[in-house]
Amino acid sequence: MTSLQARPASLTAAFLLAVLVPLAVIGLTAAACFSTMNWIGGVADGTATSIGGTPFTPAKREWAKAISPDFLTFFAVVLVVFAVLSVPWIVLGVYLRKGSSGARTTLTVFAVLWLVTGVFAAVPGSSALSSLDKYLTGTYTMHLPGSLQPLGFAQATVVIVGMAAFVVLAHHPSASAYIEAAALARRT
Known about the structure:
Elements: H1 9-45, H2 58-97, H3 101-122, H4 128-140, H5 148-170, H6 173-187
Helix pairs in contact: 1-2, 1-5, 2-3, 3-5
């Protein structure tokens, strides 16, 4: 078997991005879920107020109490799905670190798809969050928690910067040379 050259820093950095970006996204999503649950709790217990500063009606408070378990279940499912999807991503990152061309190709395809969704999420007014806020404003005279938009932009920024950097680093000439040498070493 042919000995491999030292792993280039670009490949190590791409591996770190493959591990850290999904973990950061899970953390930001958990923060958004926590913020929303606090807001729903505030509506339910009467500490949150409507756009005009008036207390919510008893019907809206009952609505918040009724949907709270459903939202909690939804957020738990979202976080579990993100965690489950992160496992193969991180495993592929480990294979990439070892010089796998297939892992690099797979991660690149998913990174580009994730990058595109991050760009759409960063455009104000185009997200589901903006649509939901407009609906709540018009129907219930209330806004979503103020922390959701900055958390959404932070998540989009992590995805855009992280995935763009990942693609550049994973396809850096030094990373490509290492991956080619690893493939050659496996064949001999």
